[in-house]
Amino acid sequence: MLWLDLENCTAITDKSLKAISEGCRQLEYLNISWCENIQDRGVQSILQGCSKLNTLICRGCEGITENVFTDMGAYCKELRALNLLGCFILDDTVADIAAGCRSLEYLCLSMCTQITDRSLICLANGCPLLRDIELAGCSLLSDHGFAVLAKGCNRLERMDLEDCSLITDATLENLSKGCPRLVNLSLSHCELITDAGLRQLCLNHSLRERLVILELDNCPQITDVSLDYMRQVRSMQRIDLYDCQNITKDAIKRFKSLKPDVEVHAYFAPATPPVSAQPVRSGICRCCVIL
């Protein structure tokens, strides 16, 4: 057996994983997401017994602790995709991953809210092949960490930085310089991003030919000017602008007239109806007509 999906199999325990590690030595893909009874020992059994494992999906495994990858470096050399969304992961955990998983290409640490810039520095030093990283909701990460990551992981093609609320235009400048292969970037709810940062990103020589998807929901400081910059990106296919209060309908219409093939997703709240100036007689509801 090469592929096993046990997502939401809540009765699965470490004993089950031990049996799998002994009986399925050729296993390459394992999904144990939301298996709440899985703990460190079970995951470690898989890593030790399944030497060809290249994909491990552990979303929402609440029993996993920060020590799950301690002393596991020798068993993670083939691992290329790792998803730990919502797990209890600390900087020490990421340091263990970076030290042992040097072939890693995809990593999801979204909603691992305790990690800091130290994690990004470890990844920059240990995982140079990273192409896809998800860090949504990691609100302790800052410009400094992303500056180091951009230098060390220059093969990045997709980054989900939604709700990385500390990052500023400095991160966009560093990504534009260090990550020339970037195709898909989410900056939703990064409220410190401004037009100046998007200028750096969109006018970069390499990214003008590569960037395909840009998600900017709830970025209140960007204005119509940013649409002018985004218009310069020849490869663009989709832009998300939900709840960007300083982007106007007219600017989007102008953009669409010049770039009709680009999907622009935006939402504008309906105008509040004017309050009637006509006085209402006391004791009579508004919907009644007085004859």
From TrEMBL:
GO biological process annotation, one example: SCF-dependent proteasomal ubiquitin-dependent protein catabolic process
GO cellular component: SCF ubiquitin ligase complex
InterPro entries: FBXL15_LRR, Leu-rich_rpt, Leu-rich_rpt_Cys-con_subtyp, LRR_dom_sf
One family name in Pfam for this protein: DUF7885
Domain of life: Eukaryota
Residues of the F-box/LRR-repeat protein 15-like leucin rich repeat domain: 4-123
Protein name from the UniProt record: F-box domain-containing protein
